[in-house]
Amino acid sequence: MTNKLYMLAAIDAAWEYQGLTYPNPAVGCVVSKNNQILSISAHQKAGTSHAEVLALVEALEYISGRVVEFDKLNATLSHKFLRSLPKDFFADCTMYVTLEPCNHDGATPSCASLLIDLGIKNIFIAKLDPIDGHGGGAKRLEESGCTVSIGLQEKEAQELIEPFLIWQKRAFVLFKLAQTINGNINSGIISSLESRIHTHKLRSVCSLMAIGGNTVRMDNPKLDCRLIDEKAPNIFIYTKDESSINKSSLMFNVVNRNIVMGDNLDFLHIPSFVLIEGGIGMLEALKNKIDWVLFYSAPVIRGSGISATRQSSFKFLHCKKTENDLIIWSRFDGK
Q: What's 202's DSSP letter?
């Protein structure tokens, strides 16, 4: 039971950065010793330290009672620091990782090589790496004398990396919808600042952001990333009447942005991450193209909810309570 809870904690940590690691998968890791958790961490952004590396550095911080003086997200510095520790520093620790430690050097050094050099003796892996040529980390760890257990909470780990698997082949399409607790989506600003910051983070990493023509005509949004001071996403406006779009709208005045209009969705065949923001009409129009729906549900009641004539069932994949809202990752039931 303890092993299951530790792996679920690693999975839960990874969901904090779902989508934000694009084009990498979301991965979480727990380090424990003598049935005590030393650290829980997750990969945060492509090109930065992987979950295992962050978890080990944070375990060192917990054990030593001091904070390292370098940027933990810098993978090269973190690997170098961990290798400078005494050989047996982590010998009595157990690791729980949601995805097989990487076996190759890429934008960051190999995690499998690091764990071998550190003498890790026991590791639980929820799921082997599904990408051809990226696996082999578990086998190398076993050959080094590490006890490797594979498949703990594999179903949950599979759901966690579903976006990663999809954007290997085509666009992963995420529809974002903010609503009150009674389903009202037309009440101005609904989500809390924390939720809006999360949306801006997703905008900053997505390949393309898609909206409906009515969003431009009725709301005149800017759709930038001002809350995190990052580059605004490029925009695709889904419309059959380009002449009805006012090109003096706020979103057209954002620098370094490309905006395309039309109703040709062939770009969804290209491996990428597409974020859609819109209302129920857009959700219904593109329902067959949408992989997941991300709900931000605010604890307020305003006006009337979504029309009962438009019904969809969803499977909840992960829910998080923020200070004010619920953030719910879901997919259409049956997909």
A: H
